[in-house]
Design a protein that fits this description.
Helix content is 49%, strand content 8%. By secondary structure, it is of the alpha/beta class. The longest helix has 26 residues. Bound molecules: zinc ion.
């Protein structure tokens, strides 16, 4: 029996009537207050606006939601209170190595987008999108590597404190290890409440790329008893990334599809974000990074729409609609996923599917 069929049989009722309420539009949490020029090699502080514009151009229905900013008290659940205060008041350098007030002003929103998307994922039992990055190198009382506050662990600690979750998974598919995430887990003794995994240390060479893709369902098994997964769909594992890399564009797309479909089959809501990505084209544009994020968004939309389709038609078991793309067309979809026409082809297929659902 293959893994997908196994997941389906073990979770035949995970997707109950609650998920039928899902809107077909993709929930994306965004506001301009999360964007700044950090005067850094990393584009991450300015990236959300560019990513959102790129997603709008894909033509997929998006429902933009306003994030709730994270409060000082909420930051202080995951970080040392003095560290939080010092960064926010410019007494200490942020993760970009400067003290720019404009960057400090974005921080409650950057983490707020992650927390808000997680809340929405728990609410709709499927998922939501957080076009943010710059989290996983931030530890309990330190910033670094373009990361100031750890929005992943802020999200985890807030949801734990509110009793909304008992265990959360962090699937960190950025190229780099989340040392800050580990630090906070250790300092706060959250080993039993957080499952933290990143594939690069185990698989991170081109020679191991296919093995990684073949093992995604086994990796997702780590999160089987989690109430929520935070998925960092990093673009810097790309083989051409200056800080990468080991996966091609097609392999990154396959990674995203298998992760998102696998979580769907496990019945685990997902809030996903952007994480790293540092490629630039000949015009010094981050278009290559945006293309990767576009593909993640399309992969999510495909799963999300497929889920809505299955839940709205009890005659058509969810399993068959989800198994089909995994078993039958991932390779061909990946082949057509080369930009930009790939993205157009995938979109055409998506919108055709969406129209069918609307009938
Ligand atoms: Zn990275």
């Amino acid at each position: 029996m293959n893994d997908i069929a196994r997941f389906t049989l073990q979770n035949p009722t995970q997707h109950n009537a609650k998920s039928a309420a899902i809107e077909q539009s993709i929930p994306v949490f965004y506001c301009p207050k999360m964007v700044a020029d950090a005067a850094s090699f990393s584009p991450s502080a300015g990236k959300p606006a560019l990513v959102v514009e790129s997603w709008k151009a894909l033509g997929v229905p998006i429902e933009f939601r306003e994030p709730q900013p994270v409060s000082v008290e909420q930051f202080s659940l995951a970080h040392a209170p003095k560290f939080v205060a010092d960064v926010l008041h410019g007494r200490r350098e942020n993760g970009f190595g400067n003290r720019l007030p404009a960057v400090a002003a974005t921080l409650p929103y950057t983490s707020g987008v992650m927390l808000s998307a997680a809340r929405e994922a728990l609410n709709n039992h499927q998922g939501a999108v957080a076009p943010c990055s710059g989290f996983h190198h931030a530890g309990y009382d330190f910033a670094g590597g373009f990361c100031t506050f750890n929005g992943l662990m802020v999200t985890v600690t807030v949801l734990l404190a509110e009793g909304l979750v008992s265990k959360v998974g962090i699937l960190d598919c950025d190229q780099h290890w989340g040392n800050g995430t580990d630090d906070i887990i250790d300092r706060l003794h959250l080993q039993d409440q957080v499952v933290h995994y990143g594939p690069t240390r185990e698989f991170g060479t081109p020679a191991r790329a296919e093995a990684f893709l073949a093992n995604i369902q086994q990796i997702l098994d780590l999160f089987r008893d989690c109430d929520l997964v935070l998925y960092q769909a990093g673009a810097d594992p790309h083989i051409d990334d200056p800080l990468g890399g080991w996966l091609t564009t097609e392999q990154l797309y396959q990674r995203d599809r298998e992760v998102l479909m696998g979580l769907r089959l496990l019945g685990i809501p997902v809030a996903w974000n952007l994480a790293g990505g540092y490629q630039r084209d000949e015009n010094d544009s981050i278009r290559p990074v945006l293309d990767i994020h576009d593909n993640t968004f399309l992969a999510f939309a495909e799963v999300y729409v497929d889920a809505a389709s299955a839940d709205s038609n009890l005659e058509s078991p969810m399993a068959s609609s989800v198994i089909r793309p995994l078993q039958g067309s991932v390779k061909s979809s990946c082949t057509i996923s080369m930009h930009p026409c790939v993205r157009r082809s995938a979109l055409t297929s998506l919108l055709t599917q969406a129209k069918t659902i609307h009938k």
